[in-house]
Amino acid sequence: MNKVFCLISFLFIIFMVACEPEYTITPFFEGIYKGRNESITEFIVNKADTFARFRDLMIAGNLDKTLSAFNPHGDNYTLFLPTNEAFDRFISNSKKYNSFQDLLDDKDYVNELVRYHVVNMALRANDFPYGALPDTSLSGDLLSISYRSHGDTVLPIVNNNASLIIYDIELINGFIHIIDEVLEPIVFNNYEWLKQYPEYSIFTMALETTGLSDTFAVQVSDAKIINPPSSLFVEPDEIFNNEGIFTIDDLINKYSPDNQDYYSSSNGLYQFVAYHIMEGKVFLNDFEGQNTNYNTFSDLPISVDGTGIDIKVNSGSKIFDTLISGNDTSFIDFIMINYNLSNVISKNGAIHFIQNIMEQYTPKPRQYIFQFYEDPLIFSASQRPNTYEFEDPEDFEKITWHGVKYIKYVKLGSSSGYYNDDYLEIEGEFSITYEIPKILPGLYMLQITANANYYNNAFIQIFLDDRRVGGNINLTSGASYNTIDINPISFINYEKHQLRIQTLIPGRLTWDCVIFKPI
Length: 519
Known about the structure:
Mean pLDDT: 88
CATH superfamily of the largest domain: FAS1 domain
Shape: globular
Strand content: 25-35%
Number of helices: 13
Distance between the termini: 27 Å
Number of domains: 3
Low-confidence stretches: 1-35
Helix content: 10-25%
CATH architecture of the largest domain: Roll
Number of strands: 27
Largest sheet: 10 strands, antiparallel
């Protein structure tokens, strides 16, 4: 585990222990309610002197019945519950509502607001990650957790805004964590969030100049409205200023002095900005324990090492600082993250702020392990403990298939031997194609991991970018969990690929992952 997160967890435990007396010195919360026969709704109604505002909104938004019952998914709920005072501050700061009644009358927003505060699974405070919570709210949005120093303790902060006042009130259908501010549903994409703050004006203008600001906007795909998933590394203006860059013109002169076609992917400014945009929703906790390359919108990936005390971005790319202590000299040869500001959540993903200018850097090839999580349907299934059978190939974004009797996601217990203790199971006379994210040029051994010791397994063949690779594979014999070498593969360009598995003899495929191992 990343030592940064270990330290935060340790300090958080101290915070939790220090806060325990809140229950005994605050008559309102005498008892922790563990095992008490009271639902989340009953708790709120019975404590209306403190939670009347949320109670009224909950009833108006038809959420009271939901929070009176068990979660049909079997994992209960987590409610971040604002106090009446929090709602009073929300109204006083609002440009839209002049009174609480005005808010109550806005039925559409009330429905979204109350559901935004409820996470679709039960979470104790010590289960919080340093990043996005493992399941969405009932409004379908992710909430993020960061931590902030407060004297000798570290406080958990929801969406970089609301602090926990009291935590882990355990009820029969989940947990309540009381917060000091209202959580406003995220309506901004990455670019729109940055646009609000003048301290990020240089990078924001660079997004506009290159047209990359448009990549975060809502898109319509197969009648579904989506914000393309992506995350940002951003330098505040003061970081640019330290290097003599005070305007967008200064940035242009540094990276594209002789090419004014800023919308072109071959333009230096375009590549600089695109290099700051990571594919997918990536929070700080996703870097934990990882030392790998993350794909960007540019011609190169970012290297992130989260295995040590610090999260190191592009380690070895440049010496940014020299630290001298007595006779010891150490060099800071990686881009540092500003942890206190990062994990800003947007409609697209996360925004992280860095303390050095991040220029393109070619990292060494690393092992790639792909487990289908790029597809939102698979990722969503992976957040739950159950097995899910899929019916419609149109529901997938990164996987296409035909000829299957069934395809399902299977979640196993811990220490199963499978990566992340899960796999896809397919049966039939099928063809299944998986869109592989971009891979850095280099020579790799292509491998797949699958069950290979079952009489009803299939005989398969592998195609990469419509070219057959390797020989016929008999999955009826071999180890129960088998990593199979397919073929050495040489990639010339940094681009996506299509991997297809097709049956020669129908049967079952228990497919764990695809691996590209540097040779």
